[in-house]
Amino acid sequence: MKVLLVDDEKHVRDAIRLLVNWEQHGIDTILEAPDGESATALIAQHQPEIIMTDMMMPIMNGVKLLEWLQANAPNSKTIVISGHDDFSLLRHTLKYGGTDYILKPIDPDQLNEALDKAIQAWSKDEELRQTNRELNIEMNTIKPMYWDKLLSGIIAEPSTYESAAEQLDKELQLTRNINECRVAILSLDTMERSVKNKFSQNMDLLFFSLINICNEFLTTDGRGFAFRHWHSETEIVLLLWKDLLGAEAFLEKINEGMRTTLHTRVDFGIGRLHIFPADVTLSYQEARDALRKRNLKARDTWIHSMLNPAKAPQAALTFTQYEEKINLAIRSGSIEQIEEAIQLWMDTVKLSEVITLEQLDLWWREYTVMKRRWVQQFFSGISEDKVKEMLSDEPTSFIVPLDEQGILSLSQWQQELTRSIVHISKMLLENQHKDKNVIFEIAEYLQNHYHEDVTLQEIASRFFLSREYISRKFKQEFEVNLSDYLGQIRMSKAKVLLRNPHLRISQVAEMVGYQDEKYFSKVFKKLEGITPNEYRKTSNSI
Known about the structure:
By secondary structure, this protein is α/β, with parallel strands linked by helices.
């Protein structure tokens, strides 16, 4: 905490320094000024919490300083130390926020008491200021989410507008007099990959940036409002209610703002003019259709409307027509055969004059179903959780590969499709390799028979191999010897059982393959660092 001493007499400032136990009051910095003007410069630079000032000084006196403080440093607490017992000065002190008025010669007790009171007053105000800051931060965090949900609700169900009409009028200037609107959509589905990669670790920041840019243009003259669509992972919706005939041109201005700020342009879909709020859903659906049905193979405009629809796609082309060829290529394990199968598909796609986002979505869904079916075929008997795990490296949604002009890049798409299918083929080959590898069969046997009296000799007899061969190969594959591997399985199972307070230690030992409780405890402590009983006490019981 800082204090500023303002007095034109140095011996008075020196006396104040000696009369106060600064450390006791938590003050670690003491500043000095010979007049009010010098004081204002120090206050602006250091922002002291406490100011002790004389009233009669040259250049700028204490009266003027108090007035300056109220306007420029309202959070500081001021103690006046004056040689004049003047009621008008006292009244001025109180009027401009002074906490105390002390007469010279200075009484040490009175000075320390006044300082203590000023510090308490500052601390109480600071606590309130901090509470308000936290509240403002919380409100600023919650408010966008509130508008997202509210406006998304009106898009989905226009009748909900009535309950929020007053708020919309007050906050967004969306008055009851407004009876027409248009809806535009900015979708991240067709945004340049380089931009999305830049924000890949924080997509919320990308949404925040895009919405802020839109609203910088929209809210300046109450033209509309942009928000994140609550029911979509990739959409930003722009609700427009002013100068609707010039909406397309205004979206171009917003796009130029995107280019300046984020070095990219985006595609907007825009619906027709409709009655607000009754038909806002129709305008939204038209905007969405305009985006989904635009031709990704051409770049005529960034603003898409159903008033100027793209040429209709040719006869439906389905990805499943090529499933058998790709399936055989995966089973072959040959990258060349996989590339040939995908090339056949891509050659057919290239013949299409029109490819829409709607069409890409259909192909993506077909491919997703095919991948799941292949995994279930190739790895028969595996659980649903295992299927999900094996496909976890695959993207959960189709990322439209666009070039710098925002046109669909078939070469990028071909590379990504090849990478995905090669990945599945490698998983199949690895699984086949494991199936042939007897060491993995032994590991699986241990997983299933850990509770039995399993010995290396029994394993050797069961799998018709020498003990030495098993020991050597097992250590190479798993980097631990067979007995330690079995011990790890048993201890893992034991830790689960120990959480059951109704099982005795001896019962747990027997259930994981140890007939001797003491030996079980010894092995447990060696591997886990604590006894079974200590582990039980420190773990949550089931």
